C-alpha cells in the first residue's frame, strides 16, 4: 500500500481516534485535527507504536483556523490525500425548545466544517489526480426524535457527499459517507443522560434493538473508512454505507 497523508477531524477521541489509529497502522502519515486538547494524547499513542502522527488544535467551523491547520499539516507531512470529516457533536432538544445557538453550532461543525475542510484539501488532491474523502454521517440521518438539528446536519452531509462526488470524480477524487449506528463513545454518555439512564443501562437498551446483537465500536467504523480510502476503491464514489449492525429504513 502506498503511504498517504491522511487528515482526520474530531480525532481526539471516539470514532476519530480509532480511525486515525487504523490509518496509521496501515502506514499512512496521520494528522489529527481536534478543537479539544486530546489530539496530542492520541498522536503520542500512534507514534509510540511506530506510526507517524501530528496533532493540530483547530475549530473546523472557522475558515482561518482550517487554512492554518491544513498549511501546518502540509508543511509537516505533505499535501493531504485522504480526508476524513468526522468532527461533530449533538445538542439534542425537541425542535420547539431548541435554541438557535444549538441549531447553528451543530450545523456549523457538521456541514460548514466539512465544506471548509474539503475546500482546503481537495485542490491538492485535484492537482495530484488522486484523493479520498470520507464523511461521517449517522443512521440518525434517516430519522430520530428530539434532535432535528443533528438529523438535518447528517442528512445534509449525505447530500453533500453525493453532490461533491459528482464534482470531483473527473479529478480522481472519491467522496463517500459512513453512517454509524450505536457506537459507544463519549457521546453515549450524553444520550444516556438525555434518556435518564446510566451508560450501562443505555447501552443494554440499545443493544436489544440491534439485529446483530451488540453495539458498535470505533474500530467497526474505522474498517469502513479504510475500505473507502483504499487504493483500489477508486470506482466507488457518492455512496453512503450504514455500519449499524443491521438494516435500517
From TrEMBL:
Coiled coil: none annotated. Residues 4-181 form the Ketoreductase domain. SMART domains: PKS_KR. It holds the Pfam family adh_short_C2. It comes from the Bacteria. PROSITE patterns: ADH_SHORT (PS00061). Belongs to the short-chain dehydrogenases/reductases (SDR) family. This is 3-oxoacyl-ACP reductase. It comes from Lentzea cavernae. The lineage of its organism: Bacteria, Bacillati, Actinomycetota, Actinomycetes, Pseudonocardiales.
Amino acid at each position: 500500500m502506498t503511504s498517504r497523508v491522511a487528515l482526520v477531524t474530531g480525532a481526539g477521541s471516539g470514532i476519530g481516534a480509532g480511525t486515525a489509529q487504523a490509518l496509521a497502522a496501515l502506514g499512512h502519515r496521520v494528522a489529527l485535527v481536534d478543537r479539544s486538547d486530546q489530539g496530542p494524547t492520541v498522536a503520542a499513542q500512534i507514534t509510540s507504536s511506530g506510526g507517524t502522527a501530528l496533532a493540530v488544535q483547530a475549530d473546523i467551523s472557522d475558515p482561518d483556523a482550517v487554512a492554518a491547520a491544513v498549511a501546518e499539516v502540509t508543511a509537516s507531512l505533505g499535501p493531504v490525500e485522504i480526508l476524513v470529516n468526522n468532527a461533530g457533536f449533538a445538542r439534542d432538544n425537541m425542535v420547539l425548545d431548541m435554541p438557535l445557538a444549538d441549531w447553528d453550532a451543530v450545523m456549523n461543525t457538521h456541514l460548514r466544517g466539512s465544506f471548509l475542510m474539503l475546500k482546503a484539501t481537495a485542490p491538492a488532491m485535484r492537482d495530484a489526480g488522486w484523493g479520498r474523502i470520507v464523511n461521517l454521517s449517522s443512521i440518525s440521518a434517516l430519522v430520530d426524535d428530539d434532535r432535528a438539528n443533528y438529523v438535518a446536519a447528517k442528512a445534509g452531509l449525505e447530500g453533500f457527499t453525493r453532490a461533491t462526488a459528482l464534482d470531483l470524480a473527473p479529478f480522481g477524487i472519491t467522496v463517500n459517507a459512513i453512517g454509524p449506528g450505536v457506537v459507544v463513545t463519549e457521546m453515549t454518555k450524553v444520550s444516556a443522560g438525555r434518556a435518564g439512564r446510566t451508560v450501562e443501562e443505555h447501552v443494554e437498551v440499545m443493544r436489544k434493538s440491534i439485529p446483530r446483537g451488540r453495539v458498535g465500536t470505533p474500530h467497526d467504523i474505522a474498517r469502513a473508512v479504510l475500505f473507502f480510502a483504499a487504493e483500489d476503491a477508486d470506482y466507488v464514489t457518492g455512496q453512503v454505507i450504514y455500519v449499524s449492525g443491521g438494516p435500517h429504513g
